[in-house]
Amino acid sequence: MTRNTQIRTRFAPSPTGFLHIGGLRSALTNYLFAKKYDGQFILRLEDTDQERLVKDSVKDIIDSLNWAGLKIDEGVIGVDEKGEIVEKGEKGPYVQSKRLKIYQKYAKQLVNQGDAYYCFCSSERLNEMRKQQQKQGEAPMYDRECYKLSDEQVKTRLKRGQKHVIRLKIPRERDFGAKVAVSENKNEGFTSFDDMVRGPCLFQNKLIDDQVLIKSDGFPTYHLAVVVDDYEMEIPHVFRGEEWLPSTAKHIILWELLGWKDKMPKFGHLPQLLNLNGKKLSKRDGDVSVRDFYKKGYLPEAILNYIALLGWNPKTTEEIFSLKDLEERFDEKKLNKAGARFDYKRLDWFSNYYIKQLEDKEYLKILKNQNFLENLKLDYEKAAKIALIQKERISKLGDVFLDIDYLIYDLEKFEKNLLGWKKMTDDEIKQNLQKAKEVIEKIDKKYFSSDRKNLEKITEILLEVAGENRGEFLWPLRVALTGKKQSVSPFECVWVLGKEKSIQRINKALALI
Question: All domains of the chain, ordered by start, with CATH?
Fold first, then answer.
């Protein structure tokens, strides 16, 4: 494909909850495809299911995309102080609930063409019909009872204000689509298309239900709205989740019945995100919304890098890709068909990598801005020092104070026998602790500020004193400062605790001997 400024992709979530990590992956795929060809990335809101709308979900979707660095070129770009949606672009509105008259116009066009019809069936009748079909082993489908009504009967019922919907009449004996997949059965109609991810797809029209296009409340269903919106907003390529694959046949039929075959987009259906057991990723598996990952302190670079590789294979051994790298390297031909398993441990690896790449100042700034440095027992200086020694170890910013209580709270009493390195005598332990105390007392106070270079200086001083017998000098010191067999290094402990607290803890250890 050549570069084309007319390439336009859209991410069109429903504001029925906070943005799922799978939704972010769909957005990323559309974004990368658009950027690869110097195109536009559009955010559209599909809010026709009014009963399931969730307050603040629109803001969450926009905030999540902005946090991830996926710049919205057109469409819904924000929510103002009054809670009103802010839009940008000439092909709006970009919110479906503002486009009802547009959908109704096209639905009536289909009715006038004979390709759609009014249906007055009650929910009770529809439920009973489905039960009977299921008993007979048939796929539940509308039986076209209302299609049999005469024009006069329809007009009469409409005048009475009888509750109704508009249904699409599927032409079950006619072929639709690109005919990239052909059936040997010449007596049935089929719909086929060449999916950008899955390749040739073929559907029997006789198995496609007469889909509702306009609901009884006047709102369109997804199927009509998505076709109309993609047409009017001139969307030539659509990447979406594979759950919409069976519906694509209905959409292709609509594109052709509305006379828009030449404008129909190419479709690509992305595999689902799965848990490690191969089932659809859900809340039971842990964090699933982008907001969850943000709150726990994952960096956007780590999230994007990881989810980009869930479904896209660069065909190399490379693993680390910045967003800019992805924009340059993305290739839709390398999208995978198989479902991708979401491994939280693998994500942690990426997150740890990106945390370690941060400059110390930027790292502390992010921690402070996201309130991860708040701890009632600590002043900022000490919190910053703890953060810096944890930087190489943590997989997410929210873990900055994890397993480090011994540097925050006063030590509980610990066993004297922990102080000895191998077969050290009490006199040797006491001698080494006394030596460490004297050294720490002489360290200039300026080396205890939260500059990592000061940690390097303290390390240098203590190692020089330790000489060749490092274990005998450093082991008792570390246990005296932490009360534990396993902890961060004694150098880090001295730096974080400071001169006064370090000496105080050494004195308590000496009192045990």
Answer: 8-97+273-341 (3.40.50.620), 99-240 (3.90.800.10), 358-403 (no CATH), 416-512 (1.10.10.350)
